[in-house]
Amino acid sequence: MTAETIYYAIGDVHGMAKSLQALHALILADHERRGGKATVIHLGDYVDRGADSRGVIELAMALEHKASKSENLAVHALLGNHEQMMLDAFDEDTLTAEEHWFTNGGSDTVKSYLRGRDGADRRKWRDAIDPAHIEWLRALPTMLVDETRKLVFVHAGIDPISYPDCKDEIRIWTRSPRFFDPDRWPDRAELEGIRVIHGHTPTSDLAPDVGPRRINVDTGAVYGGSLTCVVLAPGEQAQFLVV
Hints:
Number of domains: 1
CATH superfamily: Metallo-dependent phosphatases
Strand order of the largest sheet: 3-2-1-9-10
């Protein structure tokens, strides 16, 4: 990552594959128009609730593959709490983990993997999930930081008291009032000048929540809102691409 990089950070997708495909097209067109180097960051929650979680992961992986052949494009994905629930259910093989995931949209994810697999046994849903997808999910980080530009990319947020050493659980789950109100952040050198780019908590008006210390781009795509990408170009105010 360099100071000249244009960042494109995408909010919670939740199985809305067609929307993500359209947003990727907008991002690539915007990058082509601007030129220079670009980094696309998916902020997590690719799965659950929407109709095509499998398709969303395929699109994210495909864009990463495209970027691997480009000198001017990088693509990263972060772990969201819904991916963690999916992994927990996949690994633990317990009714508790499975039910927790299923009641939070996991049943929709399973349907997206079973679709088109004639005769598949829903009770053996693990067999329907692409092994490459599980491997990809396991490798996802919980935070990316541009130290030069003081940009922090994370799914849910940070703990202002312990950042940058906050636990992964905080990064993918937090809805702490302390985080949401930067006026309550302590006076710590580690927080000086940083801006946190996150999703996880749908905004009340389904529009981006933009402030000097954080930007929330979860605009409720699966709840009738738009899928939103914040564009952070050097020397410019935050701009947005939406579908």
